[in-house]
Please model this.
Amino acid sequence: MKQEIFSLHTHTIGFDGSNSVQEMVDAAQKIGYSAIGITNHFIVYPGIENTGMYKVAKCPPKEGRVPYHAMYSLSFEDALDKFKRNYDEIEKVKAQTSFPVYKGMEADFFQYAGWSKNFEKALDILKPDYVIGATHFSVYKGQIMNMHDVQLLSEEQKNEVIHNYWKNAQTAISSGYFDFMAHLDLYKIRGLGIEESFRPDEQETVACLAEHNVAAEINTGLLPKENGRKNGYNTLFLLQLLQLFAQFKIPTFLSDDAHKIKDLSAGYDVALETADKAGIKDFCRPVSKNGKFYLEKYLIQEKTR
Ligand SMILES: [Zn+2]
Ligand SMILES: [Zn+2]
Model:
């Protein structure tokens, strides 16, 4: 029996992806996916246009990189405009195919005044099939920071920020907004929070998933790419996280976090092997019942060795 593969976490043009919805859907079908979900960034942080990370995104220093600042929204209206256009694009593609295509979003959870109220309004208007929770940033002393900014802090400040990173993830999980959480251990790709002293934070966060019945993806986008961009992430970190998923019986599934068609299913072999090693059994798949999206449990077939 063949392993069912799909991705519920992908990005497209108009944010920080390189391909159109149609191109992603065609490529997904070609590699034998059973479904695809398009989940662009919902990142609303007033004043984000004045940050260094926004300026870098607008003028990427690396040769050949296209600007990707459209992933940041300056206001809820800005985010709504972009998502309306994106969801129209998805609807057009859906109308031409029987292949399951879902409308999702990868939303950054923030705790500033007004975020929740406006986020709920946006969900009411956009009606996504599902919402992925993410915490890509830290807010420290009133400043929004990406991982690069965090790396530049003193050891003591870094420890505080990473500890808060996990606390923020727990608040996000408890919020009830999210169907599943993206790449919980994202900061490790920059070597942040890899020390043993953060393991209790990690464990508390996974326990929080179990308590609130929130699923979590196995994100293969963090794994170092063959012939590609190197990063500090490795399969040992993935194994550690997946062992916690197994221990707390967290519903899970593979996501490629593809930003271009060639990222689709990249790293799935390694991730499945790691999941097997960790003893993960609680795999899910997307199903649509009466037009509503669900993550349904299924047994992953033993791989033939
Ligand atoms: Zn992400
Ligand atoms: Zn993503």
User: Anything to note?
Assistant: The pocket of zinc ion (ligand 1) is lined by residues 106, 134, 136, 182-183 (CB under 6 Å). DSSP finds nine helices and eleven strands in the chain.
